[in-house]
Fold this sequence. Notes:
- By secondary structure, the chain is an alpha/beta fold.
- 24% of the residues lie in helices and 23% in strands.
- It is built from eleven helices and 14 strands.
- The strands form two sheets. It has a nine-stranded mixed sheet with strand order 10-9-8-7-11-6-12-14-13, sandwiched between helices. Strands 2-1-3-4-5 form a five-stranded mixed sheet, sandwiched between helices.
- Helix 3 runs parallel beside helix 4 (124-131).
- It is elongated and about 65 Å long.
- The N and C termini lie far apart (56 Å).
- Residues 4-14 and 372-384 have low confidence and may be disordered.
Amino acid sequence: MQGRPKRASAIISLVPxxxxxxxxxxxxxxxxxxxxxxxxxGCVIVRNGRIIGEGWHRQAGAxxxxxxxxxxxxxxxxxxDVFVNLEPCAHFGRTPPCADALIAAAPGRVVxxxxxxxxxxxxxxxxxxxxxxxxxxxxxxxxxAERLNEIFLWTSRTQSPFLLIKAGVSLDxxxxxxxxxxxxITSAESRQASLALREEFDAIxxxxxxxxxxxxALTRRLGLAxxxxxFTRVVLDATGDLPPDAQVLSDGQSTLVFSASAPLSRPxxxxxxxxxxxxxxxxxxxLDELWSRGxxxxxxxxGSQILTDIIRSRLWQKMVIFIxxxxxxxxxxxxxxxxxxxxxxxxxxxxxFAESKLLGGDLMVAGYPLEGLSELxxxxxxxx
Length: 384
């Protein structure tokens, strides 16, 4: 969505705050592929039930949503109501503080869906507005606002990357056949949705086995993400069997390889030496290294060993699985979750479903880890 935002021209009487906040959330979605590592934010300015200005954060480094909305106001915003899905910033970053701009505009009320947990904000924007005599209200559409910016909120609260598990599997959970054939288990519609997810993340992570078996390009190719957003391919090569002629090593695009062996110099490829006891990397160390390099979101696409290690480690924040209506079978066929299973259902690694929909005959499901794990569920816990 480009150009000057369209304004609602009709007067809306007795519209609840939630309606205007949902409009702010709708506007925020326009920054889906362009604002990382910033949050997606929309802003609506309302007088007497009539929208007089609106805007959204278009890309990292560009004016924030509040500034866009103020600049597109059809009349003086003094005394109006401002709806924004995330607390206005109160610090100088690549742009000036939005709280200062709002104070100068003198609205009568600012309605905020959720507080910004970023260490440089974290209530300071709200406090600044209130200190200037502007009424601030919190809460409308808070759940929707949390989901919209789940990546930004997670990274701000934990100072670690948001890790998404993504896979296309058969109904019995297989990633490929016994001969490692995986093209194509899922439908064209599922693959398109899968590629669109890449456009939202800073990095894609796979193991060297996936590179060896499939020689994937691991690129963004839908053109949804802006040129200013970063994208790095990350390969975990704990066993030293990464093919030297793989696309990810030879196409000159950005690739980061974690390796336990002596690497070869390649254009566009950076190697990170990391110990791999028993042929496994410590995934927490991998994520810490990615964070130190400014990578805030990672999408893990395989293979079986990497996905299994991530699931067991409980380091993931979300899972999106595309399930095809077919059975593959075979104990040797790579699976989404493999290795030693559980003998007691109480020790199963549980999560919660959050979304499901049909895509070209496949079923897409999204889920999150369960919070508040019991002692028995935690890694290393002893069975009763």
